[in-house]
């Protein structure tokens, strides 16, 4: 008999590191943030492409 999962709970903890590093670090974080966003967009598009092929 197969097991069906009807609910999935995901928890995440987000910490604010701006206070620890100071205001000067904000400009340095923009480049990695853009790279992360680009990677996420690419993966979402890949997932949508796979789902569309089904």
Task: Describe this structure as you would to a colleague.
It is a single chain. By secondary structure, the protein is mostly helical. The protein has two helices and no strands. The mean pLDDT is 78.
How do the strands and helices of this protein lay out in sequence?
Layout: H1 18-21, H2 26-53
Protein name: DUF5908 family protein
InterPro entries: DUF5908
Search tags:
54 residues; single chain; flat; 2 helices; mainly alpha
What is the residue-averaged pLDDT? 78
- The number of helical elements comes to 2
Strand content: under 5%
Outline: flat
First CA to last CA: what distance? 26 Å
Low-confidence stretches: none
CA radius of gyration is 18 Å
- Report the count of strand segments: 0
Largest β sheet strand count, sense and barrel closure: none
Query: What letter string, H or E per element, gives the SSE order?
Result: HH
Q: What percent of the residues sit in helical stretches (DSSP H or I)?
A: 55-70%
The quaternary organization reads as: single chain
Look at the helices and sheets and give the structural class.
Answer: mainly alpha
